[in-house]
Amino acid sequence: MTEIRDSRPVQVGLTPVAEVRNLVKTFHCSGPWPWSPTREVPAVRGVDLAVAPGEVVALVGQSGSGKTTLSRIVLGLEEPTSGEVLLEGRRWDHRPEGKRRPQRIHYQYVPQDAMGALDPQQTALEHVEETLKVLGGLERREARERASSMLDRLGLGARFHALPREMSGGEQRRVTLARVLALEPRLVVADEPTSGLDPDRRESVLEALIGNLPPGAGCILVTHDMTEARGWCHRVLAMLAGRVIEEVDLSVAEPAHPYARILFDPWSAPVPRGPLADSGCPFRTDCSLCQGELAATCAAHVPQLLPLGDPAARHRVACYARTGATVPATVPATVPAAAPSAAAPSADPSAASPASVLSPAAS
User: Fold this and answer.
1) 237-254 average pLDDT score
2) Residue 60 to residue 247: CA distance in whole angstroms
3) Radius of gyration of the chain (CA)
């Protein structure tokens, strides 16, 4: 059990800030030669997700599991192949950008590469001020006042006139956060905002992000760091091969899926070394529970996400051994391999094996 550090109330029962329904994303990738046939690479397979006002939800899983692709689809940076995306109850996917643009101020993205997101010729203050003028429509004087106030709140009061190359990695991240938070968004999607930072810097960046979210704002945090997910998120969704294999509130329960348990406690079982299975449950070849009669079910059918224990606890697991499900899920048994990063640059890189991310402090 874990105590969540975000003290803002989660407004359960209200319209979700973000909701996705049966989301599917398939990339069509060409081969290395002009005459090579194209192939379909599924990145997200049938995901459902809802973020309540005031809630912070973590997406965790190995590289190539679909976390970044899912988060980009939520904001309309990628279009889904099928399924629906709703932001504050309004359909968001497949809308003309001209209709989405006026609303983008409310739904903001924190990129993983902070240095790449900053203009090398602009100071910290100019970055935030310009964001407020262009997206927020503020006059110069008001924009400068709000930009100065936000930078002060994030501990950058003495760095107003620093250029990106003069900042540390943590300061660069806080400038990108200041640009987003100054707009007072209702949804923030943060794609590994602490990647590459020292542990103490990670903590300060997360405190700056989540501690300064407006009241009622939701947040989706994509992370490889299980400590971040435990300490800062109300719910965790573990993804594998494009599917959510577990949804759990770590303040009231511990992960139950064998793969999710290894993510959060790599000492609990041998680290998987082999590739994912191409049929049935993708984790079955490394799963200690896939034995005896159960093995045939795990090999023939992809398990559905089902409630575990009290439905009010919002703990769902896609595992026949954990849920005791006897009726196989009516979904295709084949689970195509994840896309190589070179073939589908918009998806998560998938060159790494599960073993590469099974450290609770991996970034």
Assistant:
1) 91
2) 10
3) 21
Between strands 316-317 and 306-307, the pairing is antiparallel
CA dihedral 336, 337, 340, 344 (to 10 degrees): 20
Residues 6+ apart with CB under 8 A from 72: 78, 109, 189, 346
Domains of the chain and CATH, by start: 18-116+183-357 (3.40.50.300)
Confidence of residue 273 (pLDDT cuts 50, 70, 90): low
Other beta carbons within 10 angstroms of residue 137's beta carbon come to 9
* Start-end of H helices in 154-274: 169-181, 199-210, 226-232, 258-264
**pLDDT on residue 197:** 83
> What is the largest distance, in Å, between two alpha-carbon atoms of the chain?
71
- Strand boundaries in 169-304, DSSP class E: 187-191, 218-222, 235-240, 243-248
Give pLDDT tens digits for 347-360.
443 333 333 333 33
Give CA 233 to chain center in angstroms.
11
Cβ–Cβ under 8 Å, residues 340 and 38: no
Residue with tokens 């400590």: 227
Ranges 26-40, 73-87, 232-246: which has the least confidence? 26-40
How does DSSP assign 100-152, residue by residue?
HGGGGGGEEEE-S-HHHHS-TTS-HHHHHHHHHHHTT---HHHHHHHHHHHHH
pLDDT tens readout for residues 288-310 = 888 888 888 898 888 999 888 77
- The vertex-144 CA angle with 167 and 216, nearest 5°, equals 85
Per-residue pLDDT of 176-217, as tens digits, reads: 999 999 999 999 999 999 888 888 788 888 999 999 999 999
C-alpha span between 142 and 49 (Å, rounded): 37
Query: What is the CB neighbour count within 10 angstroms for residue 160?
Result: 17
Separation of alpha carbons 25 and 79, rounded Å: 8
- Please state, in angstroms and rounded to a whole number, the distance separating the CA atoms of residues 322 and 299: 16
Confidence of residue 330 (pLDDT cuts 50, 70, 90): very low
